[in-house]
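Progress note, sequence design subtask.
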């Protein structure tokens, strides 16, 4: 049920935005891969920030976005992003060669990975296909808010893991989400092969208006 939700829903909204500092890591000739690209909003914003439209010296290098969601990819294609491949694939099994891209972006994706084994597999694949680093933004545990504390307590009973909880629509299970501890992120990225992790904590407002803890960061491979 949850897997089908992410593959087939017509639009995958997010109130998160990528780290503005990311644009400082690359220019118009840097290769970039958006892992979980959705409708291409992040790719479009990054292309503008990196000056892709003004790239000197001939054609721009290929950028790419990968997502399992066919409707979102269709919306991304309507943006007509220049020199950008859009690929339907599982993030844990990427149809890409080792070191295909320099930098990756993983924006509001980690929260959708509902088991430790899936988190390890997705980050290991990211480390395999990237050569420089992965920028990420996502949600942290927010137990000080009664709403989230109740979700974590209920989720612990249902899933056996603190921070993992089922998101429901009435009596229908839509998907399972996970909120992270900073130490947990350090361990996951280290196990995947990233050698340094720069993170900073932020707060953001969800689509329903709740304030939640978040994190933006860069996981370095080189």
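Output:
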């Amino acid at each position: 049920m949850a897997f089908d939700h992410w593959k087939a829903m017509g639009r995958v909204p997010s109130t998160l935005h990528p780290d503005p500092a990311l644009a400082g890591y690359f220019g118009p000739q840097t290769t970039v891969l958006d892992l979980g690209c959705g409708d291409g909003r992040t790719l479009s914003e990054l292309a503008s920030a990196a000056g892709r439209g003004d790239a000197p010296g001939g054609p721009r290098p290929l950028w790419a976005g990968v997502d399992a969601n066919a409707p979102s990819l269709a919306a991304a294609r309507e943006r007509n992003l220049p020199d950008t491949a859009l690929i339907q694939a599982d993030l844990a099994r990427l149809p890409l060669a080792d070191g295909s891209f320099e930098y990756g972006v993983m924006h509001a994706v980690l929260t959708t990975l509902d088991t430790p084994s899936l988190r390890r597999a997705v980050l290991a694949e990211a480390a395999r296909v990237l050569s420089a680093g992965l920028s990420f933004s996502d949600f942290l545990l927010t137990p000080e808010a009664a709403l989230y504390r109740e979700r974590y307590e209920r989720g612990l009973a249902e899933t056996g893991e603190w921070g993992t909880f089922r998101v429901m629509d009435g009596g229908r299970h839509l998907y399972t989400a996970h909120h992270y501890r900073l130490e947990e992120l350090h361990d996951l990225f280290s196990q995947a092969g990233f050698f340094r992790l720069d993170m900073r904590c932020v707060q953001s407002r969800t689509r329903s208006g709740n304030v939640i803890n978040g994190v933006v960061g860069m996981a370095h491979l080189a």
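Strands lie at 32-35, 63-67, 84-88, 101-107, 130-139, 164-169, 172-178, 196-205, 211-220. Work on this subtask will continue into the next period as scheduled.
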